[in-house]
Write a structure and sequence with these properties.
single chain, 9% strand
Length: 252
Amino acid sequence: MHPLSRRTLLRSAAATATVGCSPRPLGSAPAPNIVYIYSDQHRAPLLGCYGDPDAITPHLDALATEAVLFERCFTNAPLCRPARATMMTGQLPHVHGCWNNEQIADRRGESHVRRIRDAGWHTAMIGKAHLDIVEGHADDPVNVSRLEDWGFRSSLELLSQVTTVEKPNRYTDWLAEITPQGQLSKASRYRDYVVAWEYLDSPPPDALPTGLGTDDHLDVFCGRAAAQWLLSRADPQPFYLQINLPGPHTPF
C-alpha cells in the first residue's frame, strides 16, 4: 500500500464532496469501508510520526506511514464540542452556532455522517461523541436518538475521562461487573481518583496512579469495543465507523 499524497487526498476529498455522497449507481465498483479515528485533546507534536523522540506511538506511526500525515492542520475551535461540531458539519463555529461546551449545534443541520448514510453506508460511532448533553444513562433512547439525528445508524456512546464518573454508561457498568467480589468497585475507585484531583484539572506528575490495570482503562475499553464491532460485522453493506477515543484528555 502506497501513502497518498496530500494533493491526491484533497483531490479525492473534493470529488467525494460532489459525487461521493450521492447514491451509487447499480453495478458500480464496491464502495470502500471507512474508519475515522479521533483522539481527544491530543497535541500533534506528542507523536513519534511528528518527530518527538520521547513519544512511543508505534501503531499511530504505522498508520501515518501508510496514510496521509497532515503537518499544517489546525483546529477550528480550542474547545471540545465546538471543534467536534465543526468536524461533523464542515462549518466554522460562527456558522453552526456552537461556541462553547455548553452550547449545542443543530443536529438536524449539516452533517457529513448523514450524507454518507444517505449515500448507502451503514454509519456507526463508538466512543465520545460530545455533540449533545447526555441525559441519564448514555444508552438511554433519548441519547441514541440524538446521534441518529446526526446520521449514526448505530452507536455506543462513551463519555470523557472526567464526565464518565458523573453519568452512568457502558464503561462504568463494565468496571463494576469485572470488580472481584468483596472489593470496592473499580468504577468507584476511578471516580474517587478523578474527583480528588478535580480542583487541579489534572493530577500532578508525581500523583499515584488510578489503581486500574492497563486493560481497565477507558481508551482500551473503547478500542476493544470497536475491534469487536469490526470483527463481528458480516453485513456486505459498506460501513463508516467513527472510533472516538476519549483520551488523552484530562485528567491524563
